[in-house]
Each structure stands twice: as structure tokens, then as C-alpha cells.
């Protein structure tokens, strides 16, 4: 399952993948049971999308102004503990049990279980697990440049795909909220000192919103071009049309909210745990 792609900026490299309160998502009239939700995560590839959140932890110190290797070898242990993939999947299942309706679950599962859907999930899973996002971005940008020179319709298809994946237009605000929560948690834990208060930080983010939106759109195009380069125009077109269907729109709105909340929650926990570390020491 293709989630909103990260941008090459430090903020979005850290957040990867990449926040609305879970309480804001209305409960489904008929929630799905745990076994079906777990199967849904696997067939759609959302389980791997969740696992990829952990890859973003490596750049977290950079976001706070530290050198990536400043905390010594135990940084890996700390980040693996905080971004425990089993815990993140368990939290997602718990939320989706109460929010994902049967119609949307069945619709999305049926598409991703088709021959085309299975190939798409394999490609998306492989893309999610590429640790160096810059490699994917550079390769994707080269593909986009070639498509533009050819006058290919694929660029417009990828733009439609990005709009369908984030139909509510929440991606930029969600990324900013994750950043805000991470920085405030780090300041509260004494890891950093902020020159701005919460109101000032929000005002600064508001000023940067336009640039971030453009960066996110460009990054989404590059990620899509890289991920789907082996698919035909007809297959990409079919995927776009499937993503634009109403049940799939409900699925993505919910899964985006779940992914954002889990990411923000884990980065807040990471900020608090970073207080245990001492820069420059291998502790």
C-alpha cells in the first residue's frame, strides 16, 4: 500500500513516512475483527509501511541539531526499542478494529489480492524498505525528467495518484504536527532548548508550509516514478482509478491518520528516551 512519500528535506527524511488525533476518526458502524484486520494489513502491504517508520529514526538526532553519530553505538538499540515493529503493528490493529468498516476492508483487500494488486504491493514493499531515501529520490527524479522530455502522460497519472492517496490534503499539516510534537517533547525532556515557544514554533511552521507542500509534491512524484517504473501505462492508470473509488478513499483517509498518529507517538517517546543518552559518549 503506497502511503504519502517523504520529501528529501531533513524533516521528512526523519518522519518518513510520514497528525490527526485518533479520536477524530469516527468509529465504524460495524468494525472488523482482529483476524481480518491482520490479514488486511498483510494483503495491502500496510504492515510493511508501518515497519518502514522505524527507518526514519536514524536521522532523528539531525532534526534536533546533533550529528547523526553523536550518541554512540547504543543509539541503534534505543531506536529499535522505541520503534518496535511488533508494537507498532499491534497499535495499528487495535485502532483499525474499531474504525475500519467491513465494506472498505473488503474492497481494498479484493483489489490488492488481485494479480495487479499483488505486484503493486511487492513493488511498494520493496520501495518502503529502502533505507537511503536519497537514492530513491535521485533515481525517481531522473525518471521524471525523462518522462517530461518524452511528453509522457505518466507524470499526470502520478499527480492524480498523489491526490488520491491524500484526498483530504492533510499530508503537510500532519508532517508539521509530527515535527511539532517531536520538538516539544525533546524540549520538555531537556534534550534541546527551543528559542521559540509553542505559539512561535507554530507560526514559523505556517510560514514554511508552502515550501513544504511543494517539496512534498515533488517527492511524491519521484517516489511514484521509482516505485512503479516496471508497470505499464495501462496498469498505472488502472491503479489510479482504483485509488479514486470511494471505498478506497475511506481506507486511505483512515490509514493515513493511523500512520501519522503512530509516527508522532513513537517520535514523542524517542524524544523522552533521548534524555537517557549523552552526546559524545558510547553509553
Automatic annotation (TrEMBL):
Protein name in UniProt: DUF2059 domain-containing protein
Pfam families: DUF2059
UniProt signal peptide: 1-31
Originating organism: Leisingera aquaemixtae
InterPro entries: DUF2059
Domain DUF2059 intervals: 87-127
Domain of life: Bacteria
Alphabetical keyword list: Signal
Amino acid at each position: 500500500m503506497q502511503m504519502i512519500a517523504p520529501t528529501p528535506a531533513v524533516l521528512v527524511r526523519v518522519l518518513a513516512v510520514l497528525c490527526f488525533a485518533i479520536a477524530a476518526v469516527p468509529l465504524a458502524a460495524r468494525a472488523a475483527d482482529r483476524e481480518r484486520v491482520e490479514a488486511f494489513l498483510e494483503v495491502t502491504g500496510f504492515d510493511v509501511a508501518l515497519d518502514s517508520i522505524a527507518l526514519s529514526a536514524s536521522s532523528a538526532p539531525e532534526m534536533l541539531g546533533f550529528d547523526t553519530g553523536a550518541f554512540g553505538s547504543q543509539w541503534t538499540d534505543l531506536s529499535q526499542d522505541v520503534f518496535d515493529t511488533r508494537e507498532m503493528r499491534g497499535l495499528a490493529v487495535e485502532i483499525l478494529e474499531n474504525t475500519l468498516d467491513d465494506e472498505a476492508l473488503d474492497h481494498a483487500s479484493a483489489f490488492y489480492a488481485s494479480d495487479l494488486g499483488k505486484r503493486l504491493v511487492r513493488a511498494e514493499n520493496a520501495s518502503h524498505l529502502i533505507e537511503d531515501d536519497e537514492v530513491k529520490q535521485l533515481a525517481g527524479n531522473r525518471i521524471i525528467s525523462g518522462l517530461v522530455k518524452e511528453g509522457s502522460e505518466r507524470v499526470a497519472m502520478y499527480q492524480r495518484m498523489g491526490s488520491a492517496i491524500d484526498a483530504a490534503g492533510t499530508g503537510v499539516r500532519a508532517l508539521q504536527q509530527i515535527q511539532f510534537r517531536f520538538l516539544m517533547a525533546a524540549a520538555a525532556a531537556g534534550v534541546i532548548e527551543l528559542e521559540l515557544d509553542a505559539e512561535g514554533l507554530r507560526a514559523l511552521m505556517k510560514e514554511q508550509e508552502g515550501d513544504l507542500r511543494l517539496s512534498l509534491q515533488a517527492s511524491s512524484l519521484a517516489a511514484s516514478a521509482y516505485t512503479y517504473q516496471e508497470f505499464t501505462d495501462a496498469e498505472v492508470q488502472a491503479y489510479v482509478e482504483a485509488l479514486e473509488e470511494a471505498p478506497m478513499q475511506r481506507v486511505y483517509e483512515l490509514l493515513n491518520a493511523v500512520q501519522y498518529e503512530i509516527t508522532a507517538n513513537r517520535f514523542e517517546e524517542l524524544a523522552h528516551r533521548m534524555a537517557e543518552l549523552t552526546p559524545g559518549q558510547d553509553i
